């Protein structure tokens, strides 16, 4: 896994993995505590582990994820855009 910059845009490379979900409450988060406005419209947000956390600098970063399999939304269209709001160990 690594992070690189191309034409001023930061990209992250990672191994194929799995996604997970968890039930509310989603707060507090490591990025913005209990602020309700930290979650993007559509509620597509993620927590990242040490490889992308960057000592908290990852907060607010946006990533486009390519969905390789799964029949459930939001992966039906191939990619989704998400925002980092939390750290996961």
Automatic annotation (TrEMBL):
InterPro entries: Expansin/allergen_DPBB_dom (IPR007112), RlpA-like_sf (IPR036908). Residues 17-89 form the Expansin-like EG45 domain. It comes from the Eukaryota. This is Expansin/pollen allergen, DPBB domain, RlpA-like domain superfamily. It comes from Helianthus annuus. The lineage of its organism: Eukaryota, Viridiplantae, Streptophyta, Embryophyta, Tracheophyta.
């Amino acid at each position: 896994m690594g992070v690189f910059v191309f034409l001023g845009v930061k990209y992250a490379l990672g191994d194929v993995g799995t996604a997970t979900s968890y039930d509310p409450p989603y707060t507090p988060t490591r990025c913005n505590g209990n602020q309700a406005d930290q979650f993007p419209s559509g509620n597509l947000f993620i927590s990242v582990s040490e490889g992308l956390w960057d000592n908290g600098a990852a907060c607010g970063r946006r990533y486009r994820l390519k969905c390789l399999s799964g029949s459930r939304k939001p992966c039906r269209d191939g990619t989704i855009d998400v925002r980092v709001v939390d750290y996961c160990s």
